[in-house]
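Hey, I'm writing a tutorial for new members on how sequence and structure tokens pair up, and I'd like a real worked example in the thread rather than a made-up one. If someone can provide the structure for the chain below, I'll link this post from the tutorial.
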Amino acid sequence: MKSIAKLICCSILSISALSITANVQAQSDDDKKFLTTAAQSDLNEIKLSQMAEEKATNPAVKAFAQKMVAEHNKMSMSMQPFAASWGVSPPADMDSDHQKEYEKLSGLSGADFDKEYIDQMVSDHAKALDAFTTEAKDTKDAKFRAAVLKGKTMVAAHKNMAYDLKKKL
């Protein structure tokens, strides 16, 4: 799990060192704050979903977890050029709330695990969708807005998938 954080850090440092995004203009504090929040959210979702890939008993929950790992890694990669250019460092680990959730999930199994994991995914993706919606309206950078809108579409789909799974559990 720490290898993902290390990979993200190394990737951002490599991109920064290569100056691939040197022409992207510095952004507002709100843009940087959003980027930091999005990176933290991606890391939280990846780590919780990696656990679900192993512990989920419902095949649909397991498939959802696999999709979350793949797509949140993809979303992290799409935001890396902005993070490197703006000097935004990726998070090293889950935030304290998600660390507590991780510990709670560690003690659960079977249907109890599946339900708690999906409940968390519904909640997290609803919050993330609100943040993406606000950022898409507020950012002044057209390239960043395009990346945010793409992320918003993905997060909305995740929220809907999680909600649909929740109704079935």
